[in-house]
Automatic annotation (TrEMBL):
The keyword Zinc-finger does not apply. One of its GO terms (cellular component) is Golgi membrane. The chain crosses the membrane at residues 40-57. Residues 127-345 form the Nucleotide-diphospho-sugar transferase domain. GO terms for molecular function: UDP-xylosyltransferase activity. It comes from the Eukaryota. Its main location: Golgi. Belongs to the glycosyltransferase 77 family. The gene is LOC113733256. It is found in: Golgi apparatus membrane. This is Glycosyltransferase. Keywords: Cell wall biogenesis/degradation, Glycosyltransferase, Golgi apparatus, Membrane, Signal-anchor, Transferase, Transmembrane, Transmembrane helix. It holds the Pfam family Nucleotid_trans.
Length: 365
């Protein structure tokens, strides 16, 4: 556009009474009628051609210069939407993995503030380089890769970018039920994978707690206090005939046992789809998968003091004080609602994006 702005204005050609000609000084003394008429004919011809072609020209969404504008805003002049649309999970995993391990979350656009908060806490533990964001919609894919190239991938089909889904809704089920397929694909590529929901905050490095060579590591979602030396076996079933393990913090090794659990999880989700009568979510299916494969898979329950559920950490201050210094990852569950979660994080000094957004590889969003 700047090249057009710096050309000589049209009125100089069309209306100057005595345009200059380098060929003959005599021409400077009288108008060049032939030149003016020729220019006018050419200009009119050009306008007619543009009038015919313009309706068929495809203009990118946001205008002719939207691509360059979005690139400059992101600070990445080489950003290309087509490049990231074609970016595959195998490419992303190979680019991001460290020590053959990925830290993975699945995020839609509405949860970008929680993603940023979670990332800041991981940066402080120096594990952010191995974070792979599974974008569930294209706005998330593009925004993360604009700010942090290569750290987001979309596994088709994409979901529609919408507001945060309410827990128990069909949208929430559709979103969370994709999780075991994502994780299974990563395991099939041969990587260890830690999955986190982004309503979590890391207070310490979790990897020292992944002791041994078990297939699947997970946390108890019950708020009842366990002894510090509690068993790491799968807990006994509760009133509903199944355990109450959280599906929001899982570590998997690329073993046959871990893959079996993911496949069973997928089967259970298919057998228990969402309906208005039974507002399912992914967690009961995960528990059924664990319960039904327990004899075939090496399972490990992580220590409660290090990985407490929100129903314990945010509701039992006595326990929090007694276990001070042992907490590793805090999960902001046992509460529903986007704004309520943010407020609770703020109340406990865990909403880091207010004052520390520049620590995130995404910066301010």
């Amino acid at each position: 556009m700047s090249s057009f702005l710096h050309q000589r204005p049209l009125h100089n050609i069309l209306t100057d009474q005595y345009p200059l000609s380098p060929r003959s000084p005599q021409n400077s003394q009288k108008p060049s009628i032939l030149f003016n008429r020729t220019s006018l004919v050419l200009l009119l011809s050009l306008l007619i051609v543009l009038g015919i072609l313009f309706p068929w020209i495809q203009i990118p969404q946001g205008g002719l210069f939207s691509s360059s504008i979005s690139s400059s805003r992101s600070g990445n002049p080489n950003f290309s939407e087509s490049k990231w649309r074609a970016y595959t999970l195998s490419e992303a995993a190979a680019n991001v993995a460290k020590n053959n391990t990925l830290i993975v979350c699945a995020v839609s656009e509405a949860y970008l503030p929680f993603l940023n908060n979670w990332l800041i806490s991981i940066v402080r533990q120096k594990h952010h380089d191995q974070v792979l964001v599974i974008a569930e919609d294209y706005p998330t894919l593009f925004k993360v890769n604009q700010k942090w190239p290569g750290h987001a991938v979309l596994i088709p089909p994409a979901l529609e970018s919408q507001a945060a889904h309410k827990f128990g809704s069909q949208g929430f089920f559709n979103f969370t039920s994709r999780r075991p397929r994502h994780l299974l694909q990563i395991l099939e590529l041969g990587y260890n994978v830690m999955y986190n929901d982004v309503d979590m905050v890391w207070l310490a490095d979790p990897f020292p707690h992944l002791q041994g060579e078990h297939d699947v590591y997970f946390t108890d979602d019950m708020a009842a206090v366990k002894p510090l030396n509690h068993s790491h076996d799968l807990p006994p079933p509760g009133k509903k005939g199944r355990t109450y393990i959280c599906s929001c913090m899982i570590f998997l090794r690329p073993t046959g046992g871990a893959k079996l659990v993911m496949k069973k999880w997928i089967e259970e989700l298919q057998a228990q789809p969402w309906s208005k009568a039974k507002k399912a979510n992914d967690q009961p299916a995960f528990n059924w998968a664990l319960n039904k494969t327990a004899g075939q898979v090496d399972l490990y329950l992580l220590p409660q003091a290090a990985f407490p559920t929100g129903g314990l950490y945010f509701k039992n201050p006595t326990w929090v004080q007694e276990t001070k210094g042992r907490h590793v990852i805090i999960h902001n569950n046992y509460i529903t609602g986007f704004e309520k979660k943010i407020k609770r994080f703020r109340d406990y000094g865990l909403w880091l994006v207010d004052d520390h957004s520049l620590e995130s590889p995404l910066g301010r969003l």
